[in-house]
Specification:
With 336 residues, the chain is α/β, with parallel strands linked by helices. The chain has two domains: 7-122, NAD(P)-binding Rossmann-like Domain (Rossmann fold); 125-281 and 313-327, Dihydrodipicolinate Reductase, domain 2 (2-Layer Sandwich). It has nine helices and 15 strands. The strands form two sheets. Strands 14-13-12-11-7-10-9-8-15 form a nine-stranded mixed sheet. The protein has a six-stranded parallel sheet with strand order 3-2-1-4-5-6, with helices on both faces. Helix 4 (74-86) runs parallel beside helix 5 and helix 7 (164-180) crosses helix 9. It is globular. The two termini are 24 Å apart. The mean pLDDT is 94.
């Protein structure tokens, strides 16, 4: 591409306005779109000179737009993403990619056939702490990874359609799969719906990997305090990523268990707090999308990784409904 990419953000609500701000600051924002005229007007007033409209068709027909960013309700992702790919646009869609694995597979095939970039907003994978954790794991500094767990807890924001599993857990599924370097072979999810019939407020998901790694994800919007914490347990070292900490979000523990004369002895050597560069993960994610439009390379959170997350979520939902563990299909997508 001989010029800087031009981006249209579709959806200017709770999260979309953050995407609008970031792409504007990156000097890539060319159009804002939302069915709510008041939302469009509010954002347009902040960024004079940026085109705005309430019609999605205006985005698709704009030949100047290279990339479409979708921050719309999850139920709309599949149809809007498909329409944008068919219109020849690169697409960055917020999580989840779709609500069914079959829909995700269709989008992967379409993106491959059209030579388009397909990227999904699993923002935690761009967090400097997660990037560093992945580097440590790949270098073998933690030894063999044995167990991971993630808590994402808060009081609200309660959804009326999607349950807590689909609202909160995609971030944790994405990061755990990234750090484990694999897709789980099976999942077992339980939960409870206390505020609205059929919409779970709390779920616990247990993941089992073929390489022996196990993990669990605890998510809730019915919790007395906010917590966003990831723990990694290795044979040599352990780590805690506390995203709620003001400073020192990542701690590395040189701890473990050693055997002496048949007795398990805890080893506690040192604790290291890492102070990371204060860079907004969303800014890194938006910059990544622009870079991939330019160089045509696969994004970190490409369609394939998003489909992996979608398959885990779909199996987790099935387990939640049936009350039994569910195996996860990992078949390749034909044509990709």
């Amino acid at each position: 591409m001989n010029r800087d990419p031009k981006i249209a953000v579709v959806g200017c609500g709770y999260w979309g306005k953050n995407l609008v701000r970031n792409f504007a600051q990156l000097r890539a924002l060319a159009r804002i779109c939302d069915v709510d005229g008041a939302s469009v007007a509010a954002q347009a007033a902040l960024f004079p000179g940026v085109a705005s409209s309430t019609g999605f068709e205006d985005v698709l027909s704009d030949s100047e737009i290279d990339g479409v960013v979708l921050a719309t309700p999850a139920v709309m992702h599949y149809e809007q993403c498909k329409a944008a790919l068919l219109a020849g646009k690169d697409v960055f869609v917020e999580k989840p990619l779709a609500l069914k694995a079959a829909e995700g597979e269709d989008l992967l095939r379409l993106a491959a056939a059209r030579g388009r970039i397909l990227m999904v907003g699993h923002i935690l994978e761009y967090h400097p702490a997660v990037t560093l954790l992945k580097e440590f794991i790949d270098r073998g500094e933690f030894g063999e990874i044995r167990y991971l767990y993630s808590n994402r807890l808060n009081l609200g924001k309660v959804r009326k359609v999607e349950n807590i599993l689909w609202s909160f857990a995609p971030h944790d599924v994405a990061v755990i799969c990234r750090l484990a370097g694999a897709t789980p072979s099976s999942v077992n999810t339980s939960g409870g719906a206390y505020l609205q019939t059929g919409v779970e407020d709390v779920t616990v998901t247990n993941l089992q990997f073929e390489n022996g790694i196990r993990a669990h994800i605890f998510v809730s919007w019915l919790h007395p305090f906010k917590e966003q914490k990831l723990v990694v347990v290795g044979s040599r070292k352990m780590a805690v990523f506390d995203d709620m900490a003001r400073e020192g979000k990542l701690k590395i523990y040189d701890k473990g268990i050693e055997w002496s004369a048949g007795v398990a002895v805890p080893r506690q050597t040192s604790e290291t707090t890492l102070f990371l560069e204060e860079t907004e993960p969303l800014r890194l994610e938006c910059s990544h999308f622009l870079a991939r439009i330019r160089d045509r390379q696969a994004p970190l959170t490409d369609g394939a990784s998003a489909l992996r997350v979608l398959r885990v979520l779909e199996a987790s939902q099935a387990s939640l409904e049936r009350g039994v563990p569910v195996e996860i299909a990992c078949a390749a997508v034909p044509g990709v």
